[in-house]
Amino acid sequence: MIHHVLLACPRGSEDLSRAFYVGLLGLTEKPKPPALAARGGCWFTGYDAELHLGVEDDFTPARKAHPALVRPDLDDLAARLTAGGHPVTWGDDEIPGMRRFHTHDPHGNRLEFLAPVTAG
């Protein structure tokens, strides 16, 4: 089992991160331990996963490497992201039994969301 995935973010971008990850994606912010909070960044939980954003002074967004989060309401999420200014790119059927799309967070980090294909 993986405890968390970490993505980098620029220093001072915590409020922008919260607006996206909590406000748009619906994740919950998890308080960082005091010893780590001084470093900046923020932690989020949801979708049976934990996602940490860590400050990187020489920040470069992750354009290829990315977390892939399972989300049952894929169409609703895609609509919210698009309406919020974060276009989505739907994947084809390369992963049998899964629907998926990619988008980017406000820092340019690539994210994937997927859901099992349901019969019907």
UniProtKB/TrEMBL annotation:
It comes from the Bacteria. Keywords: Dioxygenase, Oxidoreductase. The keyword Cytoplasm does not apply. SUPFAM superfamilies: Glyoxalase/Bleomycin resistance protein/Dihydroxybiphenyl dioxygenase. GO terms for molecular function: dioxygenase activity. InterPro entries: Glyas_Bleomycin-R_OHBP_Dase, Glyas_Fos-R_dOase_dom, VOC_core. The keyword Transferase does not apply. Residues 1-116 form the VOC domain. This is Catechol 2,3-dioxygenase. It comes from Micromonospora auratinigra. The lineage of its organism: Bacteria, Bacillati, Actinomycetota, Actinomycetes, Micromonosporales.
